[in-house]
Amino acid sequence: MTKPIMARATAVWLIDNTTISFKQIADFVGMHELEIQGIADGDVATGVKGFDPVANNQLTQEEIDLAEKNPLHKVKLKFNPSAVGEEKRRGPRYTPLSKRQDRPASIYWLVKFHPELSDGQISKLVGTTKPTIQAIRDRTHWNIGNIQPVDPVALGLCKQSELDAAVQKAVAKRQAEGVVMNDDERRKLVSTEQSLSMEDAPKMPTAIEGLETFSLKDDDEDEEEKEAVYDAESLFKVPASKDEDEDEDKQP
Questions:
Q1: Where is the segment annotated Disordered (predicted)?
Q2: pLDDT tens across 50-61, in order?
């Protein structure tokens, strides 16, 4: 259901000028009933000026009258013939002004670590244009010397789930085309969920105590070493010198 513009200001006006129930107003403007209650109590939307939906061609007086008489009546937005068949404009993702300067760094990261992604996929992920992506790929961007690759997820330009979905789509496309990938490319195509499910590699301990037991060998090799018994005499035995050998020969 389409909602009115300036929903909170419209709710303020309906509370002040009608006897429509809070539930009806909440359903009409797309807000929670408790938030409408807060507006009526003066705890929410303090200082917000009411927006007349009747004067602004969003609601009819007849619809208000029906809602006031019947608490179960659902208030409907006024029909606008000019909006019939209107579709949402398709284009790059909107990026806030505060984050637009971070887009080249995220594009560079995607181009470097996920070269399998198409320009269209990168454009949807970070909200940029194909000429900008191509300029960074070709290293002809005017600021390419100062651009450092940064993960777009860390910059807040896209979600990790969106990046994983794009990577998996690229994987399926490559497999369908029969492209042979090397081991390094396969590792880059692993999603976050698959990466988290893998076994952790042994890490160097930070404390001295941990270095005593740290080993890169498998558990089976460690068990074999444990089974082997070493005594002090065999470990610290020093080869006899020539003089000692002669003395032993002289003894009866």
A1: 191-252
A2: 889 888 888 889
Q: Give the separation between CA 125 and CA 158, rounded to whole angstroms.
A: 6
Helix (H, G, I), strand (E, B) or coil at 208: helix
| Measured distance CA(55)–CA(198) in Å, rounded | 61
String of b and e for 80-90 (b: at least 16 CB within 10 Å)? eeeeeeeeeee
**What pLDDT digit, counting tens, does each position of 94-150 carry?**
666 667 788 999 999 999 988 889 999 999 888 888 999 999 999 999 998 999 999
Cα→Cα distances 1→4, 88, 155, 184, 221, Å: 10, 15, 33, 48, 66
Q: What is the pTM of this model?
A: 0.42
Residue whose pair of structure tokens reads 């807040």 in the numeric block:
156
Rounded CA-CA distance 37/192 in Å is 43
Alpha-carbon span 44 to 33, nearest angstrom? 12
